[in-house]
Amino acid sequence: MNDEFPLPRFRKPPVSEVALGVQFPAVLNPVHLGLYYQRVKARFPKFQVQPPVAPSLETFGVSPTFDIQIQTMGLQSRMWFLSEDEDSLIQLQSDRLSSTGAAVKKEVLIRILMRCTRSL
To answer: How distant, in Å, are the alpha carbons of 7, 70, 103, 112 from that of 120?
Structure first.
């Protein structure tokens, strides 16, 4: 970091949304997604079925490529679990978990990620 231009410190940081996600080998199936929903349903009572997000791998020092894939949803889907006010969202599919929203605490996400990675 350049000490010539230090970063500002805020008493109330101007953050409107927090996002955290992890991608892992495809180990979850639709039964796992349903069991997970049972655990979070009280805080995330709404749900939506979405098409899955294709796996992505971030590479550095390599020129970006353009790729087109056509996929059918089939049994593998991505679930959106939404809070009542729809300000917080957990997305879960066979190979990824992500969350956005101010109401989801970092500690909760870390526990979820630790549980998911234990089964790998």
So the answer is: 38, 28, 28, 13
